[in-house]
Amino acid sequence: MTTQTPHDPGRLEKILAYMVAGVVGLSILAFLAVILGTAAGAGDNDGFSQGVWPAVLTLPLFGLPLGFLLIISLMIVSGIRRAREARQNRE
Q: Which regions span the lipid bilayer (predicted)?
């Protein structure tokens, strides 16, 4: 078992942080792809209902709320770790 120094985020915090970055980043890229696709004319004649576009259109609808929930869980996990460290430092 490895010992953690104070302020050293644990494995769960690192995983949650990378998940937030990945989900939110991918959702923003999908959002930008829709904007660029609309500007390029991909939406003409119901073009957004074919190919990969339905997945690209729905990704921000699910990814951004999921990213928000992951941020909240990251804050909770970090708060629990900090409270535990503060309790240990008082003793």
A: 15-40, 52-77
Could you tell me the residue ranges of all domains in the chain? 11-90
d(CA 16, CA 30): 21
In sign, the C-alpha dihedral spanning 5, 67, 39, 45 is positive
Task: Find all residues with CB under 8 Å of 42, minimum gap 6, and list them.
Answer: 48, 53
Tokens of 19: 């998940």
Closest to 79 in 3D by CA, of 9, 14, 18: 9
The least confident of 5-19, 22-36, 46-60 is 5-19
C-alpha–C-alpha distance, residues 64 and 27, integer Å = 6
